[in-house]
Amino acid sequence: MSTKPRTSRAPRTPTIAQLKAFLAVAEHRHFREAAAVSGTSQPALSGAVAALEETLGAQLLERTTRKVIITPLGERVAEHARRVLATLHALTEEVEAARRPFTGPLHLGVIPTVAPYLLPVVLRLVRDAYPDLELHVHEERTPSLLEGLAAGRLDLLLLALPAGGASPTRDIPLFDEDFVLVVPPEHELAGRTDVPRDSLLDLDVLLLEEGHCLRDQALDLCREVGADAGGSTRAAGLSTLVQLVAGGLGVTLLPATALDVETGRTDRLATVRFAHPAPGRRIGLATRPGSARAPEHERFAVALREVLTELPVRIVA
Has this prediction a pTM greater than 0.85? Predict the structure, then answer.
């Protein structure tokens, strides 16, 4: 005896309109009330729910003359519909935020030798000028920031330029700042303001540990004048470096923006200024080339330059 082969029904995907209609009925348990809340006619709402049941090939509702009963499968479909519609809403919100500058989330990466000294200014700007911007700050070393930018985990970086890294970046300069030599108060150079770079030749310059761009910049300066640097002593942050100097273990270089904060922690430190042109670094923003938010980043840079004039820096237009 031969039998006809069974053909499986090709699955079809419900429409957003069908899911909205069904969810309205599932929440109100009444077609007339659901139609009124949805702003549609009762026949149209009933037709959309019937179309959803046909699309899924399953009964989701039991219709009676007085009320609507949701089947057990219908309850599960309603939960899925809520999640789908919530995700769709989040998607449209995010796209709308991207279309409207300075709204929605912005993940800003900042290097540790910048974060404590510039963030108060940056956060005040965001609070006052961009109240709808949802700022997330990530303090990480340069290699990690560049990886995060390339992977899309971060949107914008605040760091020393050029950013470098394996992936190309679009760099937006903000300012230049000098390096200041920090020494114990009894040091022979303490208080001087015209020291040549080659004065580092006979000094024990303490460095940050590997991974900090400030360490690389200090090493470049030492190599330039033929000085040794670092020895076996390493510090994870600038606060530790200045405490090592205060303890008599050597001298170190601080960026000008960090000077007041770090030297204000103890009276066992003195500063030494280099003769012109002083060594220093350039700080700016970095983002992905071709970013859809490029105009927003440019406007942010302009606003930052204006508020950063209160710091001991030279603004780069």
Answer: no
